[in-house]
Amino acid sequence: MPPSPPIPVLRLTDVAALRAQVRAWRAGGEGVALVPTMGALHEGHLSLVRQAQANCRRVVVSIFVNPTQFGPNEDFSRYPRVLDADLALLAAVGADAAFLPDVATMYPPGFSTTVTVAGLTEVLCGPLRPGHFAGVATVVTKLLLQCLPDRAIFGEKDFQQLQVIRRAARDLDIPVAIEGAPTLREPDGLALSSRNRYLSDEERRTAPALHAVLQRVAEAVRGGGATAPALAEGRGLLAAAGFAPVQYLSVNDADTLAPLERVEGPARVLAAACLGRTRLIDNVAV
Hints:
ATP-binding
């Protein structure tokens, strides 16, 4: 017999319905995990769902392209929106529900509250994208409080975002465990991203150089080597490969995100660089 078709995910569009469903699951003794996304799902997102399923019986995936985390010259209007395809992927992987709020649900008339995380947002992407992390912290805080899951899963590809969310949840006593999930990569090393679809064929061939350079820098600074020479070499390699501009290439403390002159504990090598119109970010652990 042919396999049964996937069971469609439950579609929830308002907060009251989301809370009622979570409450019903909890009444049955079932743990709940949340995977926040902006849609345009790929295997990286599905790996977050699988990690959530490993620890919780029920998984909610939110899909919301959050306008407050995009700058005026960024790609909000052209960010891919493919809801039918996203829902089919979620059904195939066995997610239980999709939370699909609209802008009016997340930011009703008169909305005037912003969550700002100091320190962690003042390095790396922070100065380059004013207001971005306030938008991220605000929308994720709302999603966590709307759903109140046991766990929420975020990919490590945007490591700064993960640390900002961890700090906001800790500082605001939000009773949700924030979990990071390893970055999923193509066979050539390129980190999976919804924005990879913007790359031309030639840019796609160049893109894996970003991860290769991060690995080279990590190896050079592992064990306490000075970071400045390794970073200078890395920036040169990225420029030679065709990345322009290289917005940053940096070695930072894994907890505080402070830039490091030498690595003496857990650290990350992080980068943001552009290929044509596409901005790529990536990081590796040291």
